[in-house]
Amino acid sequence: MKYSIFSLAKAALSGHKGWTRAWRDPAPKSHYDVIIIGGGGHGLATAYFLANEYGIRNVAVLEKGWIGSGNAGRNTTIIRSNYGLPGNTGFYEMSMKLWERMEQDLNYNAMVSQRGIINLYHSDAQRDAFARRGNTMRINGIDAELLDAVQIRKELPFLNYDSPRFPIMGGLLQRRGGTARHDAVVWGYARAADQRGVDIIQNCEVTGFVRDHNGKITGVETSRGKISAGKVGMAVAGNTSRVAAMAGMKLPIESHVLQAFVSEAIKPLIPGVITFGAGHFYISQSDKGGLVFGGDLDGYNSYAQRGNMPVIEDVCEGGMAVMPMIGRVRMLRQWGGIMDMSMDGTPIIDKTPIDGLYLNAGWCYGGFKATPASGLVFAHLLARDEPHPEAARFRLDRFRRGAMIDEKGQGAQPNLH
Amino acid sequence: MRIACPFCGERENGEFTYLGDASPKRPNFAVDSGESPEGVEDAFYDYVYLRDNVAGYMREYWYHGGGCRSWLIAERNTVTHEFRSVTAAPGVGAAKPVQAGE
Ligand SMILES: Cc1cc2nc3c(=O)[nH]c(=O)nc-3n(C[C@H](O)[C@H](O)[C@H](O)COP(=O)(O)OP(=O)(O)OC[C@H]3O[C@@H](n4cnc5c(N)ncnc54)[C@H](O)[C@@H]3O)c2cc1C
Ligand SMILES: [Zn+2]
After folding, report:
1. Considering the domain B1-86 in this protein, what is its CATH number?
2. Where are the domains of chain B?
3. How many Å lie between the centroid of ligand 2 and the Cα of residue B70?
4. How far is B60 from chain A (nearest CA, A)?
5. Which residues of chain B does A352 touch, with a Cβ-Cβ cutoff of 8 Å?
6. pLDDT at A128 over 70
7. Does this complex have an ipTM over 0.90?
C-alpha cells in the first residue's frame, strides 16, 4: 500500500480499519545471498540499499529482539553534518543529503525536521575552534554560520547569558541540522526493504558462525536454526565485540552506556538543538513537547542499557548552567543504550580478516545521523567487495597504520570520545 | 553503583574515575630480545587498541580521586554492574593492600 494523503483520507472514511501490516513476518529461508545481523537503523538501511541500489534482493535482516529495540529506538534523534576531519565531513554530509530525500525515497514520514543545531561557545579559544570548523564545513559545501551573542539572543532569549563562569559568547549554527523520528526511520527502512523482497526476521538471535574448512564464513547459527549465506554483514552496534568474539575476532571497540532524558511535555519552547560548550549537555524539544536532553557517557564498560546517578547529576547541572528555567520542568523518563565506542571515536566499515564477514561498527554516540549513509556504503561494500569512496577512510586497519580519525583528539581512550 | 574501596569503605561511584580493562599488559622487549620490528608493532597495536570488551566479569582499573586517591582493581560484571571484589592495584602508594570488608 502506498502511503499518501489519499490513502489516509480513504482509511479515515473506513474508520482506519483498512490498514495492512507494513512489513511481512516471514520464517527464515535456508539460504540468503546476504545476511545482515542486527535490525537497527543501520542493518535495515543496508538491506534497503542492497535491494534498491545494488539489485541484491535475497537478503535477510536477523534481529534478536524486535527491530529498533537497540540504539535506533533509544537515541536523542539529532542529525547534523558539522564534522571537521577528512573522512567525516564528506560522509556525514552525504548522510544529510540522504535525510533530505528520505521520506520521498521510502514513502514514509520520518518526521525529518531541519530545525537547526547551535553549538554554543564560551571562550575566545572555543570561538576560534568553532570558526575553523565552520570554515572547514563551508569549504566542503556544508552550511555553517558563526553567530555572536547578540544574534543568538534573538533566537534563544531564554539562555543564561550573564553567567560569569560560562558566558555565552556565540555559537556555530548549522541550519540544515535538526532531528528525525527515530522509530519512523526504522519502520520506514523496514517497510521499504520488505517491499523490495528483503526478509526481516525478528526474535532471531545469532549465536554462532558456520565456517567451511578454509575458515570462510558460510552462514550463521541462530535461535531459529542454521541459515546459510553468501556473505554476512554485522550491524549490531553495542554488541559488536560479542558477535565478533563468536568468530574469534578482537576489535578496537569498547561498549559503554549513554543515558538520555525526557521531561514532561510543555508548549513549544526550543526551536532547534542547543549544545552547551562549557560542559557536556545538549537539548531539543520533541514534537510531542517533551524536552529531550543528554550529556556524557557514564564512562565504564557496560552492556546493561542503564546508567548511574553521577551522570544524571552532571547532565542536570549542565542544563541548569546554560538554561536555568529548565529547573521548573519535571523529568519524566530516563534510559540508557549501549554504544560501540571505537578507539578514535570514528566508525569502522570494512571487510574483516575473515572471509565472508563484513563489519559496520564503532558508531559511538553519533550513529543515528549516519543511518542512511551507513546503509548505503555498507551495501556498496557487501555488493562490490570494495569500500564506497565516502567510506574509504573508515578501514579497520587504520589503527595499525596510524591513520586514526580522532575528531575530539582524545587518543585511544574510548570513554573520553 | 557503589564501590567498596578497600581503604575508604563503600562510596558512590561518582568519587571514582574509570581507566578501563586491567588485563592488557604493556609489551616489554629488551633491546636484544631478537623480536622482529613487526612483532613489536603487533604487540603494541594489540596493547593500545584491541580489547576483549567482555560481557560478564571484567578486571578493571578505577581511581579513587574523591577519596584516598588510590588506584584500585575491581572485578565487576559489565552486564549487571555487580562488583565481586575491589582491591588495591599492585604498587599502590605506601598502603598495604587490605581485602574489602576487613
Ligand atoms: C542515549 C543515546 C542517545 C543518542 N543520541 C544520538 C543522537 O542524538 N544523534 C546520533 O546521531 N546518534 C545518537 N546515538 C547513537 C545512535 O543511536 C547509534 O549510533 C545507532 O543507533 C547505532 O546503529 P543501529 O541503529 O544500527 O544500532 P541498534 O539499533 O543498536 O541496532 C543493533 C541491533 O543488533 C541487534 N543484535 C545485537 N546482537 C545480536 C545478535 N547476536 N543477533 C541478532 N541481533 C543482534 C540488537 O538487538 C539491535 O537491535 C545515541 C545513542 C544513545 C544510546
Ligand atoms: Zn579510597
Report:
1. 3.30.2270.10
2. 1-86
3. 6
4. 9
5. none
6. yes
7. yes
